[in-house]
Amino acid sequence: ELGRFRHYMQKEIFEQPDALANTLELVGAAKSVQPGLFGAEAETVLRDIDSVLILACGTSYHSGLAARYWLEEVAGVPCTVEIASEYRYRTSVPNPRQLVVAISQSGETADTLAALKHAKGLGQPHTLALCNVPESAIVRECALRFITRAGPEIGVASTKAFTTQLAALYLLTLAVAKLKGRLSAEDEAREIDALRHLPAAVSAVLEQEPAIQAWAEHFADKRHALFLGRGIHYPIALEGALKLKEISYIHAEAYPAGELKHGPLALVDREMPVIAVAPNDALLEKLKSNLQEVRARGGELYVFADAKVDLGTGDADGVHLIQLPEHYGKLSPVLHVVPLQLLAYHAALVKGTDVDKPRNLAKSVTVE
Ligand code: F6R
């Protein structure tokens, strides 16, 4: 069943182009997003909402954090993202015009389900499930739904579920933007083309596996690692840190790079590798100066940049660079998470941990 792969996690990382293509097939041949993709009532509901509340745990929470940037920038809709286990126990102010989105690969996560029921109980009628398992408990609980087509995910560490969630959340963003009159037909067609090109773009990133594998050797004897990102790539840094800690047991933390000097810079020394997500976007120059701060403290830098990004330094300076084939605009996070998945996978291989079944973790967390 594993074919040429050693673990389900590796297989599932490499299935991402197909998982994305299958999920995007739901759009059909059209150059537009039909709101009906999210359910029969979606058009009426999405036109009327004034904000979005995303509830999720773990990796699914990270896809929600990324979607917040899209929903606010592209659709102009305020969005908050909450960890389900926190939301369900705090006193919050209900808003009947808000769309509540529960994101879950399994659709069975107890905290996410309870948070969703809590929101409904507070008087939030508009609910959307974004799940990989049709007919799961969370899907049954929601009026609207979008089922990703990642296929069964067996590795405990979530990979292809995450990238398909991002694709679904981008479709949601486009649908809301359109209904709010913020997306011209021309822009919409261009966005759909960009989505359709994702499987090929992810395949090109996967070809970098040998270079990433070589980096992984440097991590095996490290006890800690710091992941940095800015903007929509901060959630990607969080996801990279989560992957590394759960399967390689190396303690990893993620920070928005601008926060470095407010604390975490104190941790940086030669023993603390720093992994930076450095796409060629508006924040690149800011990020570069954050990276200089790391270098000045002797920190070893591992930078995932885009093509044409020149850091002006080299290996000899303690700066290691892998360049992704292209800059992918707003969808860049979908590409940038892939090398972080591979890095975690190969670091775990070097350490010899049980990649598909990390200690103390379960695939589906159906208890609180
Ligand atoms: C991390 C991971 C977990 C899950 C979390 C939520 O790799 O798999 O953090 O993302 O338990 O699970 P779902 O998405 O099934 O609700």
From TrEMBL:
Record-level GO BP terms: amino sugar biosynthetic process; carbohydrate metabolic process; fructose 6-phosphate metabolic process; protein N-linked glycosylation; UDP-N-acetylglucosamine metabolic process
UniProt key word Transport: no
Keyword Electron transport: no
Domain SIS: 42-182, 215-358
Catalytic activities: D-fructose 6-phosphate + L-glutamine = D-glucosamine 6-phosphate + L-glutamate
GO cellular component: cytosol
Catalytic residues in the record: K363
Domain of life: Bacteria
EC identifiers of the protein: 2.6.1.16
First-listed, main subcellular location of the protein, grouped into a coarse class: cytoplasm
Keywords recorded for this protein, A-Z: Aminotransferase, Cytoplasm, Glutamine amidotransferase, Repeat, Transferase
GO molecular function, one term: carbohydrate derivative binding
Compartments where located: Cytoplasm
Main function: Catalyzes the first step in hexosamine metabolism, converting fructose-6P into glucosamine-6P using glutamine as a nitrogen source.
Quaternary structure, from the entry: Homodimer.
This protein's name: Glutamine--fructose-6-phosphate aminotransferase [isomerizing]
Covered residues, full protein: 248 to 615 of 615
